[in-house]
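Regression check, pyridoxal-5'-phosphate case 387:
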Amino acid sequence: MFTSNTVKLALLKQRAYNLRWATLPDGVIPLTAADSDFPCAEPIQEAVARYAKDGYFSYGPPEGLPELREALAVHYQEIKRVTYLPQYILPVDSAAFGIFLTCQSFLSPGDEAIIFDPVDFLFRYSVEAVGAIAVPFAIPPGTEKVDFSQLEQLVTPQTKMICLCNPLNPTGKVFTPTELLELVAVAEKHNLLILSDEIWSDIVFKPFAYTSVASLNEEARRRTITITGFSKSYGLAGLRIGAILVSNAAHFQKIYHTSLHQSTIHGSNVLGQIAATTALQECRSWLAEFMLHLQVMRDLCVTKLNEIEGFSCIAPQGCYVAFINITGTGMTSADLQKLLLEKAKVAVVPGLAQWFGEGAEGYIRLSFATSAEILEEALFRINKNLL
Ligand SMILES: Cc1ncc(COP(=O)(O)O)c(C=O)c1O
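Current build output:
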């Protein structure tokens, strides 16, 4: 299922944007945005086609399709061990929008939110977009045990929220219950909300295990706004679908009113919701197969990258990205990215502050959600052109 035959390059060249195939010159292999090269699972293809064939695309309910809210509640109960009532789950048009909407709902200009460093740019972007201040908490790549009690030093009277990204893109760190309990203790002591972005929570490699922060105890569940999405696990990025899950009516009402869904100005489209429902209800075995493939790709990637002079790569515990320390090459991440693009014809993401924060310099990020053939070719080209 996850061979080079299933990767349809001609279609990717037409349809895969966001720094990927459709945006790059022919011959360049994009290991950039974390977006799978494989088509989505067949049950999703069929469900979307069936719905489309009926020819009706009427307005859906502003609070989301009941079947998706129910499927998310079941998924969170069975897999993540958190009780979320369907009426407190809001499907939104992507995890990215979920992060922004949570910031918009709970932060005012001048408020502070703690974000990790390095971390995906969406956190800083969303916090700043609503006029709040993003305060970075350093988690250097390779940190074995994060001491979240240190977060307390960053808390001021303006602090309102801790933004948790677990697993952590780009370093692939998966947080343990002990680490998360320390984070919750700080949040509790200072009455802070926890924004928990769990879009990567299905992509965790053995022997590591995922813990949803809200599953730890009732106090954690009460103050957590959970955000999830379907772009990473199920390859549905272009359908722009995600969800926000909360524990109580007050949080739900705040988010729902801020979302403008009730006015139809915003809302998640029905096809995305049909696809997401099918993913949760019918695609667990597909996801298990995908994970088996990713585990092999991760190992291949880490082995080959560590053979390259000047590169050093720790195996990610989660996420399908490798975050490579390139300081041994003597180059900046921007110069190396340029060299790889021009000489090796491989596109990667440089560790620039604009993508991941200040703590990312000296690193490049590479996505490995592709076939073994494409990945081997890319790694071969990188190695050959750095010699
Ligand atoms: C940590 C994290 N959150 C959110 C997103 C965005 O997901 P979506 O496509 O659902 O907006 C990404 C995508 O790279 C991500 O890495």
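Comparison notes: The mean pLDDT is 97. The domain at 4-41+284-386 is CATH 3.90.1150.10 (Aspartate Aminotransferase, domain 1). No diff flagged against the previous build.
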